[in-house]
Amino acid sequence: MARFTIPRDLYHGKGALEALKTLKGKRAVICVGGGSMKKFGFLDRAEAYLKEAGMEVRLIEGIEPDPSVETVMRGAKEMLEFKPDWIVAMGGGSPIDAAKAMWIKYEYPDITFEEMCKIFGIPELRKKAKFCAIPSTSGTATEVTAFSIITDYQKGIKYPIADFEITPDVAIVDPDLAETMPQKLVAHTGMDAITHAVEAYVSTANNDYTDPMAIFAIKMIQKDLVPSYNGDMSKRGPMHNAQCLAGMAFSNALLGIVHSMAHKTGAAFADFGAHIIHGAANAMYLPKVIAFNAKDPTAKKRYGEIADYMGLGGSNDDEKVSLLIKYLRGMCDDLKIPHCIKNYGADSYPCEQGFVPEDVFLNRLHDIAVNAIGDACTGSNPRQPSVEEMEKLLKCCYYDTEVDF
Ligand SMILES: NC(=O)c1ccc[n+]([C@@H]2O[C@H](COP(=O)([O-])OP(=O)(O)OC[C@H]3O[C@@H](n4cnc5c(N)ncnc54)[C@H](O)[C@@H]3O)[C@@H](O)[C@H]2O)c1
Ligand SMILES: [Zn+2]
What we know:
Number of helices: 15
CATH class of the largest domain: Mainly Alpha
Number of strands: 8
Strand order of the largest sheet: 1-8-5-4-2-3
Helix content: 40-55%
CATH architecture of the largest domain: Up-down Bundle
Strand content: 5-15%
CATH superfamily of the largest domain: Dehydroquinate synthase-like - alpha domain
Shape: globular
Distance between the termini: 34 Å
Bound molecules: nicotinamide-adenine-dinucleotide, zinc ion
Radius of gyration: 20 Å
Oligomer: single chain
Structural class: alpha/beta
Order of helices and strands: EEHHEHEHHEEEEHHHHHHHHHH
């Protein structure tokens, strides 16, 4: 038996933010990030709509990108004081993910972070509050997913919390919020979205319900991401929808080792000046993982189907896989994302020597490989790598060398 879970209601299209007026309750918290929602007026509007719905509103502001365990605990404490019956999270994946974890801790104050990270082990929520998510980036689709990614900075590791309990009750996918994204954010979040769709399509948990969403999202992103990056604002709406479809697919079909590797490298070099931004990590690793997974016959066939659907040509599956890899690398070039960690510079721009020195990478390689294999996303990858293979794969992602194993 398999399960397919998405939010009960999804409001979409320009102006959909107004749907906040329809929520019924007494008190709502709005969780937001560093200030973009306030700056562009969306926070004021959300607050006004909730007040119009008769609710008292409190703000939890300043949730940082790649939120920490400490931020989750701080927010949960505020929720315990204010006792909201709606948690409204607005912004990129970071504030929405943090709010999901705060929600668990609000409902179960004694739960530890380790207990939250037990895959599909979250106790029943909605005894105190319901959850509404409003994305402002076109990538993570956390507004429809059963996931939340929280970073333990002591360990330098991102942990996925995964359970359908944290799939939001209401999602509001309003393209107005995505229009203010700067160019690089469009690139990163868009590559995150296509990675979700590709990984969901070849996941061992793919099924008849998730395939149509995954494949259609891939087609939309192929058509709309680069023009959106280059300033065609009419593409922001379709990209917002495409990433959401990809999210419905992967929340129910799960992901693969591109995400395992992104989770375990993202914060691993934070002491050397920067995160490897989630979407950029995915963009660099996806072509390598496709080459690795394509040794599995079923995965190869399914990558071939993706290439067919994208109209890439090729007369057999080997050719189709190569063309798919070439196409995705071309997207990285169009979006000015490097092909490997070695060339990963500030804000993900390609440069000769990026911020991760070779000796540091090699020193940490074994631990990262072990952690990546242990990531929740590895189980549904079509080919299970050994630690040795994972190390080799990560090396290919560092040096941009060919995957021939
Ligand atoms: N829960 C899931 O299913 C899931 C899936 C993939 C990734 N993630 C996680 O989500 C996080 C990344 O989220 P993200 O890529 O959405 O970025 P983010 O939330 O980290 O935001 C990045 C930056 O963009 C700014 N920003 C956001 N929206 C904006 C807008 N419309 N205009 C201008 N600036 C804006 C933010 O203020 C922030 O400074 C990572 O921690 C990643 O691991 C979660
Ligand atoms: Zn992702």
